[in-house]
Amino acid sequence: MKRIIQGIMIMAIMVNLFLIDISARPLYKDEVYSPEQIIIIGGDNYFPPFEFVDENGLYRGFNVDLIKAIALEMGLEVDVKPMPWYQVIMELETGGIHAIQGMKYSEERQRHYLFSKAYLESSQSIFVAADNMYIVDLMDLKNKKVAVQRNDISIDLLKEVAGVELVKTENQQDALRKLYEGDVDAYLGNRLTGKYSVQREGYQEDIKIVGEEINPEKYALATVSQHAEFLDVFNEGLLRIKEKGTYDTIYTKWFGHPISSSVEYSSKFLTITGLIFFVSLLITFIFYKWNDLLKKEVERRTIELKKESNEKEQILNSVFSGLLTVDINGIIMYANKKCEAYLKKSAHELIGKNVLETPINRLINENDYYSVINDHIPQIGKEIQVPGKKEIFIYEYNINPLKIDEHTIYGATITFKNITEIKQMQDQLKVKDKLESLGRLTANIAHEIRNPLTAIKAYVELIPEKYHKEDFRRMIVEDVPKEVKRANDIISNLLTYAKPSQPQKDLCHISEILKEVVQFYSGEAERKDIHVNLQIEDGIYAIVDEPQFRQIIINLFLNAVQVLENTEKPCIMVRLDKSNDKWIVRITDNGPGIPFNDQSEIFDPFYTTKKQGSGLGLAVCYQFVKENNGDISVQSSNKEGTTFMITFQLTKMEEKQ
Q1: Taking a C-beta distance cutoff of 8 angstroms, is the pair 578, 536 a contact?
Q2: 195 pLDDT higher than 90
């Protein structure tokens, strides 16, 4: 009975499609498009199952049958022409064709084309190699090579993805071939067309679809304003073939039934009854066959899991650091070979023990461990000194939470390594660097002190000859104290740099301090017509030495005022805000900028590009910032201004403010 019903349905489909393709008497004459006028419709030459030229050179597909059915219904003479997609677009815009038989709707395209009523929904998908495990959505295509059909809507979807290298092809078949041959990392295109081509070309074992359907959108006939009248004809024809069931016949031919076909209850009953006996005969065979396949699959998967486990074990054992994992109660679950070497104990002796009751407790700080377990705060780059028999060893360790989600952890990983030799090498390099800096510093001090001494010496030598002149006496009274003060300032700044006082850190209201300093020195800026723009977030507290912090801001603000002397519309912006776990001060000017070659040296003592200046202001700023556990950097470009950025890490106490 089922075969009879299926035969009748197949015959009905064939009759309907046959009627579409044969000539028939026009049923409708359009007022704009007469039967004598040929309507030229363009379509993609390879976009199956929508439209494609088959191996016999025939133009087939859902869109082709749909256009023919509407033309027959409306009494139109239509010429459907296949061509590459980019050429279809070009022909429509230059008047070579009247319409495109199928185009996906988008807001961008709506600005250029007119669309009929939608007759289908189309979506895009990402196709990748079967062994690709890291691409699952559009954002994963960043900095990847992606194949797309030329002029396809997929190109618009990739505009927001940074670094994508587009490989444009004539059709989607060529795009999939490039993916199969490894020329690209992924292919983005129509989901149905991609699935059709993968099956047709035999790529099922090599190419897969990843992620959800992308940008499901209406699919319709498209034209331009010159042929807007044709849309009414097409829409009327589409409505008629839907009412007659022709549309459903075409859809079923190319896409199958979206859900099971409905038949009369009695027919279903008879069909099911006829199959029961056959199914009952097969069920035993299927059971044993399935059991055998399941057994083989379990064996295969077991081998794969063992292989994966061995690979992970080898990777963990090849790292240079000792590594172990603990559960939420501190019980050791895993220890690698390097861990065994450091601790002189086997993994068997460590696993199952509490981490704080093993030799590892000498290599980490217990408080750091509890910060991870209780507060979920990673401890990175921590150092600890471990006394040995003849020397003190230095170990570096990291403790990271193992998370189930953002708020729940199930354990932690601990990595550690001996960095004693590295520290010794760093100390040696520091000594070498200090000696080199001392040489440069000595030369600069001599140069800076010699200038005021030379001026004083010149006045002293001229006293016997010119002291009786009033102008000379006035000049010596004015200039000599200035030069003495200049030498004294150099020595004072040098002492501040060389022997800084121990910072006295306390919780300070940074927002208010910054406002006070800038407002106090704004008078200097106003006298030079400099506009000062404050963007300071209120309520930011920090643990710093307040006098040192004030001096940092004073030095940087006055430095900005000085560089703006010859700048048109001079402006200084002072900004304070939080960013993640940091708070940042930015002082920006629109001055001439700092040459690129000078930027790496501006924090060195006595290095200056000013005619008047000791070159110690920025060096003192750098030292004060470092003493308060912060960082200072500069961003500058020629004639576009300079930004000094001071960054401090938020502490627990600051986070609660």
Answers
A1: no
A2: no
